[in-house]
Amino acid sequence: MAQSVIHLEQIRKSYFIGKNELPVLKGVSLDILKNEYVALMGPSGSGKSTLMNILGALDTPTSGKYVLSGHDVSRMEDNELARIRNQEIGFVFQQFNLMPRLSALENVAVPLIYAGIGKKEREDKARQMLEKVGLGDRYKHKPNELSGGQCQRVAIARALVNDPSLILADEPTGNLDTKTSVEIMEIFGNIHASGNTVVLVTHEEDIAAHARRIIRLRDGLIESDKMNEMAAAHSH
Ligand SMILES: Nc1ncnc2c1ncn2[C@@H]1O[C@H](COP(=O)(O)OP(=O)(O)OP(=O)(O)O)[C@@H](O)[C@H]1O
Ligand SMILES: [Mg+2]
């Protein structure tokens, strides 16, 4: 399919607790095109994070096919997976997942170390990204010296610094108050508007309303997959 960033065919994922199989994803097929903005919703335990971890190449499916930007991820070895994860994917988590001992600038620069970029260029790029998310005056702060919303901005800057083809965010506003959530959603809106592909998990309808397409999971299967007319009406 032309310009599919994500192509999933019959993705299944089971966890094994001793000898008991717990099927979590039960055959998910899906295409997400370049520059789509997708909200993934569904009840707690329906498999959203499991699916996101597979999309982010943090975990592998039990069976099925996953093609990410033309690369068949389901057939990749670990080292190849690590490379594609670093180059193609920016991941934002609910708990921010920042390194506590590193400054904001150093946290943002981490993916560039793995990409083999020199120190000066790393710092320049990380600084630019922090400015983009409105944290130009907080380079030297450590995570415990930043608010939750500021930590999430650092995490978003880190996710964007390698210019990935796909931004994944699992409940990025789950730990933030309403006002801060609105600010973070504005940043995701800008990320999408500048041509990125965004997939975001949320429990909240008003957060999902920012997306152009809403996919609902239930019990490990896609229950519905609809364009969001409200967001399309407000498109720039
Ligand atoms: N590592 C694991 N080992 C065993 N079972 C797991 C593991 N991770 C997730 N599960 C189970 O898989 C199911 C789906 O979990 P998942 O985290 O994907 O749900 P979710 O849709 O993200 O829920 P929430 O909205 O609460 O974040 C749950 O029943 C969970 O207990
Ligand atoms: Mg989850």
From TrEMBL:
InterPro entries: AAA+_ATPase (IPR003593), ABC_transporter-like_ATP-bd (IPR003439), ABC_transporter-like_CS (IPR017871), MacB-like_ATP-bd (IPR017911), P-loop_NTPase (IPR027417). Keywords: ATP-binding, Nucleotide-binding, Translocase, Transport. GO terms for molecular function: ATP binding. SUPFAM superfamilies: P-loop containing nucleoside triphosphate hydrolases. It comes from the Bacteria. The keyword Ribosomal protein does not apply. Residues 6-235 form the ABC transporter domain. The keyword Nucleotide-binding applies. CDD domains: ABC_MJ0796_LolCDE_FtsE. It holds the Pfam family ABC_tran. PROSITE patterns: ABC_TRANSPORTER_1, ABC_TRANSPORTER_2. Belongs to the ABC transporter superfamily. This is Macrolide ABC transporter ATP-binding protein.
